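Its record is set out here:
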Amino acid sequence: MKFNKIYLALLGSILPVSSVFAGGLDRSGQSISAFLQPGNYAEAGISILDPKVRSSKLAVDDMAEDYYFPSAAIKVQATDQISLGLLYDQPYGADSLYPNGNPVFSANGEATRVEVKTQNLTALIGYQPNKNWNFYAGPVWQTVEADIKLRGGAYSLLSGYNIQVEQEEAFGWLAGFAYQIPEIALKASVTYRSEIKHKAKSSEQSDLALLGQQLPDVGHPLSPAKPLLATLGERESTVEAVTPQSVNIDLQSGVAQNTIAFANLRWVHWDQFAVTPSLLAQASALAKGKAQNLIDYSDDQWSATVGVGRKFNNKWSGSASVGYDSGAGNPVTTLGPTEGYWNVGLGAQYSPAENYFIQAGVKYFWLGDAQAQTGGTIVGDFEDNHAMGYGLKIGYRF
């Protein structure tokens, strides 16, 4: 049972819909499969998610917004032993809007709203001492920005809090290795991505203003001796956040003529992740007796996808997969009240010629039930949630 390199490459990535809905803020899954393609290769794709996240007890019909994110990659085999690559994706994010008019999550004609966006640009250099091994590493450039509004009774006296985080850049790194036996379509890779520390400028606002009271000292730079009205209202500050380290393990092997099996395992270090802007910390300490995080997670995320791909003829291939994600803990923030998922996916690839192809895929997600909390207080349950994911990708070999 032998496979040529082009056939191996065709079957190796025929499901373009990536994670798109995962634990924490994880979205893209941060695959480097394009860099491990043979020869010179380029691709561009887009993934779209249509989720429905609801709570019958809280009269929330749907709080999760549709979203899409693009990806692109180019890989050049500079010599027999040196390869270069550039990968773009949007690894983390959130997009939520609660229904207006629901007093739990809206007030004064406005509803709770969350937008978090990130961008990654990864530069890679690989060394292939022989046809089997590939060792690679490189820097990662990342940006983060956010716009979050808290409204309604779920946030008690903190209703009316806003934060805008300006786009800010920071750097990390990636390293890994791959082993392959092209003749039997065997390929395995392990990739580590470092955490990336961000310090971003932000603008915070709070409606909480009680004359004559003093701010408690919660470990932030503002003096506790200042009157509350002088400090709550609007503030320019610096927000610290660390996007987590992660490990991806990818496996595939030929199992029959024209058929391969594949698997992806992913670990993301969300445990003890927290974002705590200074104004929110002090306002929540005053209102509730302790500083409140804007976003936090309690557990690491573990995810896995397994599937099979099959070549039907010289132009058509297809795949089927099953996926699982553990989520990042429960209870969870009201800004994303789901805990992991199960999914099933189907993909198809059409290759008009040997050097280029078009892929399309679809996934259905059963999203895990979760308890939403704010400031350590359970607000309510979100149950019976689901999502549809769609993907499209074009690849070209040159």
Notes: Residues 5-397 form a domain with the Porin fold (CATH 2.40.160.60). The longest strand covers residues 162-181. Confidence is low (pLDDT under 50) at residues 210-231. DSSP finds three helices and 24 strands in the chain.
